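Issue 218. Parser rejects a valid record. Input:
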Amino acid sequence: MKEMCLDDRPREKLLENGASVLSNAELLAILIRTGTQTENAVEVARRLIQAAGGSLAGVADMPLSGMVAVSGLGRIKAAGISAALELGRRFMAEASTMKKVSIIDPGMVYSMMHPYMKGLDHEECWVIYLNRARYVIGKEKLFSGGLSSTLLDARMIVKHALDRHADGLILTHNHPSGNPRPGTEDIRQTEALRNALRTFELSLVDHVVIADSSYYSFADMRIETVKVLDELADKGC
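Output the parser choked on:
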């Protein structure tokens, strides 16, 4: 980036004025470091953003093969960008539990878990462990499934909850299809887990199904869930 005037050099601008004054393309250019024979790093970064639909979210969802296809980006540069964006995801997810705040609604669960689940092409199941005041005392991914289903092991979830001295938990999993509404198997497994936890005086506070831009809360929609269970029982399922 030596051919750029001093005011246009993103690294120097960052050192002089801080990262907040830089554009998205300039921040990416610092990771890219060098351009091509005809373009500087900022121009390569702009083309990367354009190829990703004009947003950083698009860049974050881009596979490494898509980044490498952008002229001026090799595997090493693409890996550096991917690593930086993943750190950003993890920071956002971690920051959501830094303050000791009681989980009081499913929107808080969505904000906490969305960074982990956004853009996945398979289902993952996470458990958020809570104390009596509903403060988060831990969370972990327990299961990873295929494109459309994840099988729960209620005994494992109970064991992990007891090991952490939790008083309750929130189950959450994603739907890669983009539709957060649970299927009958989701409902059946949720009720089986609720019953297993009740045996050990643990509570299932909620089960939140997450899609990229929306969510479904079993707690909010309890009446609808019970109706489906009654219909299954009538059918002998």
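Fixed in the parser; the record now loads. DSSP finds ten helices and five strands in the chain.
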